[in-house]
Specification:
Elements (H helix, E strand, L loop, with lengths): L11 H5 L1 H5 L34 H11 L30 E2 L3 E2 L25 H10 L15 H19 L5 H12 L8 H6 L8 H12 L16 E2 L15 H4 L8 E2 L21 H9 L20 H12 L15
Antiparallel strand pairs: 1-2, 3-4
Helix pairs in contact: 3-6, 4-6, 8-11, 10-11
This protein binds heme C (2 copies).
Length: about 350
């Protein structure tokens, strides 16, 4: 059903070398064409890149390998990719995943498409930079790389990373792998995780055959039902926090954004997720409590789940016929991203 496309990249041949050949006919890593003006999404503003961590193709390539390398985790069992896999829309397909040392995680793994365009990270937006997020994911529960006694990455993890990548770190950063350089490389790689080639994107560019008739009707329903109050723009997220009632009936509900803002109205509010690739990223919501896309859509169409903090300003029950709900689901299917993160060859 999905056509794989080869995406144009700049600086590729030198940087990726053999990888390109290995990936012939598949998607390839999307590297920055113009590192000073990195604007991977057509007709959209350039991505904001921190001055301290300029984006380069070499750095992204290094981060791409680290992203797949289990040696980064505290117990050697998992890489970042372990929980953000292609087949599951860059999630893990579980209600809630398990981190290194078998640590159960508190929330559902979110997708990462266009994650470099966000300005706050995690479901509650507690991370203020992508570098900071990467460090937290690396050191804390997900990858468990933190030293048991000190607040720093285990010496043996860094030693393994330096053994495999020391020369590459010297070349890219002029120093060995440390907390800063590893997280800068990971963040740079994540800025290349771009969705821009869905059927909807092609339809927007004028390809009348890109979307099925049902999906076209669904796109109209999506706008009519005001899903765009929160899932707006090319990324289908306003990057704001809303309570739609998920998990509020729990004995001790996850208060979400309230933890960060301490504002009463943010109780049980979570960052609006992008809907790109949503058909592949079941189960749904921050607690992974809903198994199918159809159920998730019905919950939103119904106006969410009532509770004292429900965002009734932006979310109201939409009076839709069953056929319209079906069309909505078809539209969301048209947001499935054909690009994939290719698997690199890792050093010994
Ligand atoms: C064991 C599973 C697991 C692993 C391994 C993992 N993640 Fe995640 N990731 C998650 C979960 C769960 C969340 C959501 C946590 C939250 O919001 O509280 C998340 C969230 C994120 C986000 C924020 C997304 C957003 O919408 O703001 C980014 C970025 C990310 N991870 C990158 C990484 C990186 C980098 C690594 C490797 C260093 C990594 N992940 C390893 C499960 C995982
Ligand atoms: C008030 C803002 C708002 C409106 C309006 C809204 N959503 Fe959402 N949507 C959210 C938030 C916030 C979440 C995540 C909530 C959570 O996990 O607690 C979400 C989650 C979803 C999910 C699950 C995505 C995932 O990755 O888990 C789907 C599907 C979805 N919305 C579709 C829709 C549709 C279809 C409509 C219109 C009928 C709609 N939404 C209207 C804010 C909104």
């Amino acid at each position: 059903m999905l056509k794989t496309t080869v995406v144009a990249i700049a600086l590729p041949v030198v940087v990726l070398g053999g990888v390109l050949a290995a990936c012939a006919g598949q998607d390839v890593l999307k590297l920055p064409a113009d590192p000073k003006n990195y604007a991977p999404v057509e007709k959209f503003e350039p991505m904001k890149i921190p001055e301290k961590n300029p984006i380069t193709a070499e750095k992204a390539t290094l981060g791409w390998k680290l992203w797949f390398d289990k040696r980064l985790s505290g117990d050697g069992t998992r890489s970042c990719y372990f929980c953000h896999v292609n087949e599951k829309g860059l999630t893990d397909g579980l209600p809630k995943g398990t981190g290194a040392f078998n640590k159960p995680l508190a929330r559902h793994t979110p997708t990462l498409w266009n994650i470099g365009y966000h300005s706050e990270w995690y479901w509650d937006g507690r991370a203020k930079s992508l570098e900071g997020q990467a460090l937290a994911a690396w050191k804390l529960a997900n990858m468990g790389a933190k030293d048991e006694k000190e607040d720093k990455v285990r010496a043996e993890v860094l030693e393994k990373v330096n053994k495999a990548y020391g020369a590459e770190f010297q070349k890219v950063f002029g120093k060995a792998a440390d907390e800063e350089s590893v997280t800068q490389a990971l963040a740079t790689f994540m800025r290349t995780i771009i969705s821009r080639d869905t059927a909807w994107d092609r339809a927007q560019k004028g390809d009348a055959t890109a979307m099925s008739d049902a999906a076209k009707r669904g796109w109209e329903v999506f706008q009519k039902a005001k899903c765009t109050n929160c899932h707006n723009g090319v990324f289908f997220t306003d990057q704001q926090y809303h309570n739609i009632g998920i998990g509020m009936k729990a004995e001790k509900p996850d208060v979400g954004r309230f933890n960060v803002s301490k504002a009463e109205k943010d109780t049980g509010a979570f960052k609006t997720p992008t809907l790109r690739d949503v058909a592949r990223s079941a189960p749904y919501f921050h607690d992974g409590s809903v198994a199918t896309l159809e159920e998730a859509v019905k919950l939103l169409v119904g106006g969410g789940i009532d509770n004292p903090h429900l965002d009734k300003v932006n979310l109201q029950k939409a009076d839709l016929k069953d056929a319209e709900v079906k069309d909505l689901v078809e539209f969301l299917n048209a947001l499935t991203e054909p690009a994939r993160i290719p698997e690199p060859k890792l050093p010994e």
